[in-house]
Write a structure and sequence with these properties.
This protein has about 230 residues and is of the alpha/beta class. The strands form two sheets. The chain has a five-stranded mixed β-sheet. It has a four-stranded parallel β-sheet with strand order 2-1-8-9.
C-alpha cells in the first residue's frame, strides 16, 4: 500500500476518537473482554465508594448501577470518567495523572469506608491491598476477563509487514496476546510505546524496550510520538 505519511498501530481494546497530523492511525485491538458472573448479593450492601478503573469496567458494570447503593464514585482514567459522565453519573474523584499510583497518592477514603471495587480478574492487587492497608473494607468483584481478539491477528500481521513507524500497547494483556502470536523480533526497527510502567514491564519480560508518556492516556502517547518524529527520531 502506498502511504503519504508514516503510520502507527494502536492496539488498545477500545478505539478512541484520536487524531494525528503526523501519523495515520490504525486501531487493531489485541484483546476483547467477557463479563463474568458474580454474587449479586454483594450489591445489596451500601458502599461509601464505588471505584471503576477502566472503560471496560464501566461497560460491564453499567447493568448493575441501578442496583447498588453508593455515596461517591471514583475513576482512574479520563476516558473512564467521560464514559461514566456520558451515562449521567458524576465522578467525585479521579487522580491527576490518571494512574493507579496517582490514585493511591491522592484518594481520600477514610478508615472504615466501605469500597466496592469491580475489576478485571487479572487486575493488579496493588490498589486493593493499598485500600485495605488504609483501613477500608474493600469488596473486590472479578467482573470481567480479557481474551485474545483473534479477528485482529491477520490484520496485525499485514500491517507489521508494511513497516509502521511504531506500535502502541495499553495493557499487559495486550502484550501477552501479541507475544503469543508473534516473535518479539517482529518489533525490531519500530518505536514501541506503552501506557503505564506495568505495560512497559510486560514488554521488558520479552526483551522489548518501550517509551511511555508522562500521562497515561492515548492522546498523550500520540503527542509523545509526534514530538519524537518531529525531532527526527
Amino acid at each position: 500500500m502506498n502511504r503519504s505519511r508514516p503510520f502507527l498501530i494502536m492496539t488498545q481494546s477500545r478505539e478512541q476518537e484520536c487524531r494525528s497530523d503526523r501519523f495515520a492511525l490504525h486501531h487493531v485491538p489485541l484483546i476483547t473482554t467477557e463479563r463474568l458472573s458474580f454474587d449479586a448479593s454483594l450489591l445489596e450492601d451500601g458502599y461509601d465508594w464505588l471505584v471503576l478503573t477502566s472503560r471496560n469496567a464501566v461497560e460491564h458494570f453499567l447493568p448493575y448501577m441501578d442496583s447498588v447503593k453508593f455515596d461517591r464514585l471514583a475513576s482512574i482514567g479520563r476516558k473512564t470518567s467521560e464514559s461514566l459522565e456520558s451515562h449521567g453519573f458524576t465522578v467525585d474523584f479521579e487522580p491527576p495523572d490518571y494512574s493507579q499510583e496517582g490514585f493511591m497518592a491522592h484518594f481520600t477514603a477514610q478508615p472504615g469506608d466501605r469500597v466496592l471495587y469491580p475489576v478485571s480478574e487479572r487486575a493488579r492487587p496493588l490498589l486493593y491491598e493499598h485500600l485495605g492497608r488504609q483501613g477500608c473494607t474493600v469488596t473486590r468483584i472479578a467482573l470481567y476477563r480479557p481474551t485474545d481478539n483473534g479477528a485482529s491477528r491477520k490484520v496485525l500481521q499485514e500491517l507489521l509487514m508494511e513497516k509502521p513507524y511504531g506500535i502502541t500497547f495499553s495493557s499487559p494483556s495486550g502484550v501477552r496476546t501479541f507475544m503469543k502470536w508473534f516473535a518479539p523480533g517482529m518489533l525490531k526497527g519500530m518505536t514501541v510505546a506503552a501506557i503505564g510502567h506495568v505495560t512497559a514491564e510486560a514488554l521488558e519480560e520479552y526483551g522489548v524496550s518501550s517509551i511511555q508518556p508522562a500521562k497515561e492516556t492515548v492522546e498523550d502517547m500520540i503527542l509523545m510520538l509526534e514530538e519524537r518524529i518531529d525531532r527526527g527520531v
